Amino acid sequence: MSIEIRVPTLGESISEATVGTWYKTAGEAVEQDEVVCDLDTEKVAIEVRSPKNGVLSEIVANKGEDVEVGALLAILNEGKAVVKKDAPAAVKSSSKEAEAKPLVQPRRAKAPEAAPSAKKMMAEKGIDKKDVKGTGKGARILKQDVINFTDVAAMKSQQEASKQEGQIEERIPMSRLRQTIASRLKSAQNTAAILTTYNEVDMTEIMKLRQEYKENFSQKYGIKLGFMSFFVKACSNALLEVPEVNGEIDGTDIIFRKYVNMGIAVGTPTGLVVPVIKNTQDMNFAEIELTIASYGKKAREGKLTLEDMHGGTFSISNGGIYGSLMSSPIINPPQSGILGMHKIQERPIVVEGNIVIRPMMYLALSYDHRIVDGKGAVTFLVRVKEALEDPRRMLLEI
Asked: Mean of the pLDDT values across residues 263-275?
């Protein structure tokens, strides 16, 4: 019995994906729920698993192809794989004559056909179709195959020229995730009226608190007490006080929320992803730290799901872990605000008329001026600063 393996539902607002790596080849046995390939979407990589035990008889969509929801990926023959055993030597060759002359003469393989658009392009560019590898059904040459061939030829030419000049370059295609990041960030700049306001926070009290209770916290909850939970709590409290920073523009309406879904920007080898912690206004420090650790592990292993990154109302980006001292983060539409954390650096500041050395961090709030006024943005950032410089405020929610 043949079973079709098709592109699954990809999630809200996602209708297309790119075929990534095939982990099985045609003719190879697969087990139920075994991963056969993955799909790169604009947000995450999705694993496609085998619905039954069987043999992968045909791969229809090759690596790099764009496929829509419901598109056919492969054909699976249900059942156990049949392994052909070698025939006895006497059966393999009954005579020298049989070995020398096959019973059926093999037909000469036909040259692969080419799509009309591909033929036209090859004729215009003077390309011999024997040089082009077809990826269509039956090795049919598609227009994209010709484009890829010309790109590769141009790249090789550039690389040869660069080598002669002592310069080496590498060209790789952008992943769908990277394309989406580029598109969304540019769209945010073109659509939202983005402004950034800055402040600085003295991290002395938080660092003292962490030092005093880190062992007890770790023993009780099995997780280290980091800085991010303080920032998540401080922002959650401030967002409920200044709801427009937690809001969203929907046409000619403004959506105000009485809950906070905090997006935490995480860098991965394939690009920036923003998993979302739901209802942080009701979470304690341990719950936040455990959730962040879980998302961090899933991000590194490439196992984040669409649900993990859906529904954010505000985001935090920590450029300080890479050494950034100051930056202006870009909001993640349709959100109206994002907080940028930065490197903690000892600097001289004036406290009660005296110059002292304190661990300081610059904070940056980028916001959409269409919904957030300057007063609201500054008030939000001041509330975050006050909570971080006196962590007892977060316990008392003042």
From this structure: 80
